[in-house]
Amino acid sequence: MTAPRDPSLTDEAAPAAVRTEGLAKRFGTVTALRDINLRVGHGEVLGLIGDNGAGKSTLVKILTGFHQPDEGRVLLNGEPVELRSVQHARSLGIETVFQDLALVNTLPVYMNLHLNKEPRIGPFLDKRRMRAQARRYLDDIGISIPSVNAEVANLSGGQRQAIAVARSVYSDAKILLLDEPLAAMGAKEGGIILDLVRMLRERGDVSIIMIVHNYAQVFDVCDRVNLLQHGEITLDKRTEDTSVEELLDLVATEYRTGGKFAAGRGQYLSEVRGDGTPGSAA
Predict the structure, then answer these.
(1) What does the pLDDT read at residue 261?
(2) How far apart are CA 71 and CA 54, in angstroms?
(3) pLDDT at 47 over 70
(4) N or C: which end of the chain has fewer CB within 10 A?
(5) Does any domain span residue 4?
(6) Residue 133: CB partners within 8 Å, gap ≥ 6?
(7) Is the pLDDT of residue 9 over 90?
């Protein structure tokens, strides 16, 4: 059994499991990412936060081979790589779990756990082996699903998400990218995923980048946090060196107006509603 990892012992000088240098991505006249310098150590969990449209999903899609960067480069274990496709990234040990999960709802659990990697006996699927392996996978990581023959459509959101993560982990992933795995989940279902991430973090043999919507969850399972704003990383700190309040304050700053409207704003509204005082007639 692998001993729990002590995050304080991470060697910052060692080659990172994944690193980006000066990444930029443009879609026509829109710059989605600019000068992204990101680092995730071996066995480290990085929380990636930011408002909608900040560039989080675009960054993950570059790391998973779906998008190609316009500038910069990606390094795995210190070696530059060009991720030509999703399949190429998977062959290098990069697995991604998107919000849509890529599960087939009409297939049973054991088939989904082996999707596109089904063991065979000659031309036939080895369903007995798939069922046995699926049961071992789920029991090993503590996912409570009564039967591996159950259709995925009949499971809860947390159980489906856990199956998608388990499929990536047991495919020998070295780098796991989780795109908002807790979105639209209740506390109980989200707990399944957080427990799974904690277990992987303690093992220390998978590096994880997790896009997180709820900032408090960053401090439950992540070693470090990066904040993306308008396509740039504006904060990179260990979770022990920051707080929910600091993260919220950084994000809220750009929405503050100082309590005053710019000159001229609301003029037509005043004309429509009268002199602007409560109860005035138009």
Answers:
(1) 56
(2) 18
(3) yes
(4) N
(5) no
(6) 110, 113, 114, 119, 170
(7) no
| DSSP three-state, residue 132 | helix
Position 242 pLDDT exceeds 50: yes
Q: Are 270 and 276 in contact (CB under 8 A)?
A: yes
| Residues contacting 48, CB < 8 A, separation 6+ | 56, 59, 60, 209, 210, 211, 212, 225, 226, 228
List the structure tokens of 51.
Answer: 């408002």
Q: DSSP string of 78-128? A: TEEE---SHHHHHHTTEEEE-TTTT--TTSBHHHHHTTT---EETTEE-HH
Report pLDDT for 76: 96
- Within-domain flag for 281: no
70-115 pLDDT tens trace: 999 999 999 999 999 999 998 999 998 876 667 888 999 999 999 8
Asked if 96 contacts 59 with a C-beta cutoff of 8 angstroms, the reply is no
Task: Report the predicted TM-score, pTM, of the whole model to 2 decimal places.
Answer: 0.80
Mean local confidence (pLDDT), 234-255:
88
User: Quick check: 137 and 113 in contact, CB under 8 A?
Assistant: yes
3-state secondary structure of 88: helix
**Is 47 a domain residue?**
yes
Q: In the prediction, which pLDDT does 100 show?
A: 64
- 92 class by beta-carbon count within 10 Å (0-12 exposed, 13-18 middle, 19+ buried): middle
Range of the domain at 24: 16-273
Q: Biggest alpha carbon distance in the chain?
A: 83
Q: What is the CATH number of the domain that holds 92?
A: 3.40.50.300
